[in-house]
């Protein structure tokens, strides 16, 4: 005789036996105890969380007669009366379970509703349980609306679905709805520790944790995996055996990956990925476990001691790594891990995708650029450049060779600007928020793209200068040249409109549009840099508003003016004009003229 699977053997038969759904048990228990019963219930939730189980217990509560046959509606069904035993056995005549996936037509729904008009045969109520109700056709839903809203007194409807969004609103409004939540891994693990001793099965705590995580919130899946693990381990649940059965990536190799990232050791990182490949472990599982580790590290960093790592070697290792990696890098690592999983299917192979995700985490670490030549600071804008155009003799880069051709000796072309060294490639001209050692700025920049530095349509226009803005621009140029500010702190000053500059009173008022830049951490850093530069106590007051006269706008206006002057210099050059007249097809390639 075959054994009963654990998912059926340990199906709860009373509300008190249910785990992880206290909010549903409490509401139904109070309703039954106070005899405040609804005519239709809708239970929603993912697979294996107890929707059918709740409906059966509810049916027993409605029809229980007690051990002596004199009982009434109760929140604690006896389990021994005919109604309770027959509902548990699935043969109670007044409890009808209907699978909407295979009985979805209007004809079948009409037949069910016709039978509902007759009084129950043995119990107090006829209870109709329609599973996966969202699978009913539109006509079937319409057919049941009137009966569902005003059923006979002896009829109760229990609907269950894993996808409530597909249930018409007209049906939802007629039901009392309960959402059964996915169960936490800790809840599943604790329940398995109660079940397995009853079966005489020895199990490692680590094995139960793996099963609980693999169940993904479903108690039925957890019990099914436990059955599989018992068969795989010949009656014993070991962590190594369950890990092999599930193909899960262990915590140790992932901790080694995090250690390599924290140390900035690219060679160790690649070696660990190769080890995962040699062991045949899943790249997707590695990223999933990496996200779990990063999440636990973030908890430990935010609330030290929250992991309760005193008796767990793995959690102690995670707590140690939380001290080795800054919080912003931990957040970055978590983001890259969860967003990198969908990329695995697009990579040449999944381990190439895993390698690239990890190398991205290594490349985006603050200070990763320190191995290369440091980026040059933003060029200071001379004040005179904002008030007068650049001289006509400004050197520019000529158009490419196909533009014009002439038989004139080479020395005659001397008035044309000398060739300019190669312009940096687009990826070399990194924005300000990546040319810095500010760890928080880099982490934020990776997660979301920053707003444009200068609004479109404004950058090329001259900026009306104000005395306060003049002094603030000069001060920012001084700070940038000294390297006193970097990353978002520099951008805060560069995007700020100074409306008041009073050194005597020690107060500077700035207007900044972007909320990201107005964070107190950036304001404090900029205030400290200003105090150091001026040698006195200065308070920066940063306000929200429209920033009109900022160093960034002045810089953009100066650049635009230099561009216009360069283009005018080329176009008005006598030699260029002569060549244009001599060769009718000659032209100046748009965008090829660049000021030096």
Would you write up a description of this structure?
- The protein has 596 residues and is α/β, with parallel strands linked by helices.
- The chain has four domains: 6-179, P-loop containing nucleotide triphosphate hydrolases (Rossmann fold), CATH 3.40.50.300; 185-246, Helicase, Ruva Protein, domain 3, CATH 1.10.8; 264-365, Zinc Finger, Delta Prime, domain 3 (Up-down Bundle); 373-420 and 431-596, DNA polymerase III, tau subunit, domain V (GMP Synthetase, Chain A, domain 3, 2-Layer Sandwich).
- 46% of the residues lie in helices and 8% in strands.
- It is built from 23 helices and ten strands.
- Helix 8 (185-199) crosses helix 9 and helix 9 crosses helix 10.
- The longest helix has 21 residues, at 551-571.
Short recap of the structure:
By secondary structure, the chain is α/β, with parallel strands linked by helices. It is 46% helix and 8% strand.
Itemize the secondary structure elements and their pairings.
Layout (H helix, E strand, L loop, with lengths): L5 H4 L12 H12 L6 E5 L6 H13 L18 H8 L5 E5 L6 H11 L9 E6 L6 H12 L5 E7 L7 H4 L3 E4 L5 H15 L2 E2 L1 H11 L3 H14 L3 E2 L1 H8 L4 H13 L2 H13 L4 H20 L10 H12 L2 H14 L9 H14 L75 H9 L19 H16 L4 H8 L2 E6 L4 E6 L7 H15 L4 E6 L6 H21 L2 H9 L14
Parallel strand pairs: 1-4, 1-5, 2-3, 3-4, 6-7, 9-10
Antiparallel strand pairs: 8-9
Helix pairs in contact: 3-4, 5-6, 8-9, 9-10, 9-11, 12-13, 12-14, 12-15, 13-17, 14-15, 14-16, 14-17, 16-17, 16-18, 20-21
